[in-house]
């Protein structure tokens, strides 16, 4: 028989675990780079830019557009990388807590 109360308790437990994991995401970081490593951007699991490193040879007032393009590319790569890490952390937080219900992805439930 379907145990609704047990499922609800498991959902509450998963929600609490995911909330706890989300708080820890501030310490999770990812780096993106462009221009062969001349531009590096580091972001955290709360989707905030933490640091940016620019090769000094790129700082040329006559070539602002290229620098902007490289910064945008590195930032986007960093955000793509952190999304993968966030999903993995959230998946690990709830692994084995809920039955496998098709179409129910708890990893995306609270992000």
Task: Draw up the topology in text.
Layout: H1 4-24, E1 29-34, E2 39-44, E3 49-54, H2 64-94
Antiparallel strand pairs: 1-2, 2-3
Descriptive labels:
alpha+beta; 2 helices; 111 residues; 3-stranded antiparallel β-sheet; 16% strand; Ybab, Chain: A; rod-shaped
Explain this structure.
The protein has 111 residues and is of the alpha+beta class. The chain has a domain at 30-98: Nucleoid-associated protein YbaB-like domain (Ybab, Chain: A). It contains two helices and three strands, in the order H-E-E-E-H. It has helices at residues 4-24, 64-94; strands at residues 29-34, 39-44, 49-54. Strands 1-2-3 form a three-stranded antiparallel beta sheet. Helix 1 runs antiparallel to helix 2 (64-94). The longest helix has 31 residues, at 64-94.
The CATH superfamily of the domain at 30-98 is Nucleoid-associated protein YbaB-like domain
Global mean pLDDT: 86
- Low-pLDDT parts are none
Walk across the major sheet and give the strand order: 1-2-3
- CATH topology name of the domain at 30-98: Ybab, Chain: A
- Overall number of strands: 3
**Tertiary shape:** rod-shaped
The assigned structural class equals alpha+beta
- State the helicity in percent bands: 40-55%
| Major sheet characteristics | 3 strands, antiparallel
β-strand percent reads 15-25%
Number of helices: 2
Radius of gyration from the alpha-carbon trace, in angstroms: 19 Å
Order of SSEs? HEEEH
CATH top-level class of the domain at 30-98: Alpha Beta
Distance between the termini: 32 Å
Q: Which architecture of the domain at 30-98 does the CATH hierarchy give at level 2?
A: 2-Layer Sandwich
Main location: cytoplasm
Pfam families: YbaB_DNA_bd
Organism: Anditalea andensis
InterPro entries: YbaB-like_sf, YbaB/EbfC
């Amino acid at each position: 028989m379907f145990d609704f109360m047990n499922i609800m308790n498991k959902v509450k437990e998963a929600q609490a675990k995911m909330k706890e994991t989300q708080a820890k995401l501030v310490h999770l970081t990812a780096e993106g780079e462009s221009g062969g490593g001349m531009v590096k951007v580091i972001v955290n699991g709360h989707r905030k830019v933490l640091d940016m490193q620019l090769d000094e040879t790129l700082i040329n007032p006559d070539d602002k557009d290229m620098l902007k393009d490289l910064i945008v590319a590195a930032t986007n790569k960093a955000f793509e990388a952190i999304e993968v890490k966030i999903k993995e952390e959230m998946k690990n937080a709830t692994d084995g807590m809920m039955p496998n219900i098709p179409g129910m992805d708890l990893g995306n439930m609270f992000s």
